[in-house]
Amino acid sequence: MTGNYIACHHCGQLHERSALVSGQRASCVRCGTILWSQGVLNSSAWLALVLTSLIAFIIANVMPVGTISAVGLKSSSTFLDAVAATWRAGYPSVAIMCFATGFLMPLLDILILAWLLAFSRKGQRAPGLNQLSRWLHVVRPWAMVPVFMLGALVAIVKLADMASLTPGAGLWAYAGLTFLLTGLSKLNSERIWLLAEQDGAVKNLPVTIDQAHVPLDCEICGQVTMSADSEGHCQRCHHHVHFRKPAHRTRTLAILLTAIILYFPANLYPVMVNTTVLGGTSSHTILGGILELWNLGSWDLALIVFIASFVVPLTKIVILGILIGRSAHGSRDTMMRYTRMYQTVELIGQWSMLDVFVVILLTSLVSFGPLMSVTPAIGAAAFGMVVVVTMIATMNFDIRKGWDEVDDDIEQPGYQPAATAPTFS
To answer: How crowded is residue 290: how many other Cβ atoms within 10 Å of its Cβ?
Structure first.
């Protein structure tokens, strides 16, 4: 059987690729995951959004996020000022994490999209398409502009009882950039290849299904490659692909244990230290910061920080622990629940970085020497590492292995493809 196929990234089910109309999407017949969709925007429209995002990004990082006035002095800060202040305060690990997630990764994301779309809209294959689409796949989860935007709002509330703060043009640019990047989040590497197909720049290569070969699913371009081995290279973008991630449970468990170890100092040690000429020095843990927001009357932001700093990390750790320790054989309904749990972890992964962004922004804004200052503490470094490590653990886990152990009437022997189930979005 020869044709164009697509495999579900969450259960491994092979599907025939059917033509969709604008606004329609195709979902997996086995686990319900959206396989691909026919959007209403073409490459030119996406490029316009990307270029608008680039302009907003430049403004957001050149103009101050805010200016505070206290004890007759003023202090303003951009995001890069906050990173530099954190480095000077003796916490290069925190500075590097924030620079990468708040500046470098979002910038690379935007520039890669702009380059690829500029050629695709003209029906041309972009130079470096294979490598750049792989970079886009790697960069995307680590671009955390929306998290920083929320962190800036929390920092403003925290400063309410310490000084007078005036929001800067950078803050408004970040607000606009947050909405733009949220829209662009749908434009992943597979979507880029799909747009290139529609523009005639690339083709989806036909595949012959036979029982002597296994389908290798490329997470970069969505191409299916049949191979006699459990690993190989995508026939279209040449990315190294596996039938299933090898030793995924062992690797995920080792990384998860590292996150659990880091979680204790992240919550027990202070994340920042406040110094004032009248009040002396006071240390704040994550829980202390939440209580401070609550006492200031900002119960809504206190709840958001509590969810981001406590609920989200614990949820990720608990869910990954359940997935690693699940029974060897499960029903389809059980695997559906596990798949939704895994998708939840993928979705919420980066939001725990909120507190770290709050700390670096306060470090830069509240810098009046011995009169008033905020400096990072060891808890911020540990908490940032918890976020990074849990995200890496999630990326190493392969939920498809659980589906391989499910015996249902949907998966056919010999990896025979199923018809997709189109629905309107």
So the answer is: 22
Query: 291-313: per-residue pLDDT in tens?
Result: 877 887 777 878 888 888 888 99
pTM assigned to the model: 0.91
Name residue 167's beta-bridge partners. Answer: 66
d(CA 409, CA 318): 31
| Side-chain half-sphere exposure of 320, counting CA atoms within 13 A | 33
Pick the more confident residue, 214 or 421: 214
Closest by Cα among 342, 361, 152, 141 to 271: 361
Place of tokens 């480095």: 87
Pairing of strands 280-284, 272-276: antiparallel
Taking the mean position of all CA atoms in its chain, how far away is CA 193? 20
Buried b (16+ CB within 10 A) or exposed e, 54-70: bebbebbbebbbbbbeb
Tokens 């992240």 belong to 266
Segment 110-132 mean pLDDT: 96
Residue 70 has pLDDT above 80, yes or no: no
Q: Name every residue whose Cβ is closer than 8 Å to that of residue 80 and which is 6 or more positions away in sequence.
A: 61, 99, 103
pLDDT at 74: 83
């629905």: which residue's tokens? Answer: 423
Q: How far apart are CA 423 and CA 417, in angstroms?
A: 19
Is residue 11 within 8 Å of 392, Cβ to Cβ?
Answer: no
Query: In this structure, what token pair is assigned to residue 353?
Result: 């970085």
Half-sphere exposure of 361 (CA within 13 A, CB side): 32
Contact 339, 399 (CB under 8 A): yes
Q: What percent of the chain has pLDDT over 70?
A: 94
Distances, alpha carbon 193 to alpha carbons 47, 109, 269, 297, in Å: 14, 15, 46, 48
How long is the chain? 425
At 219 the three-state DSSP class reads coil
Of 88-97, 132-141, 165-174, the poorest mean pLDDT is in 165-174
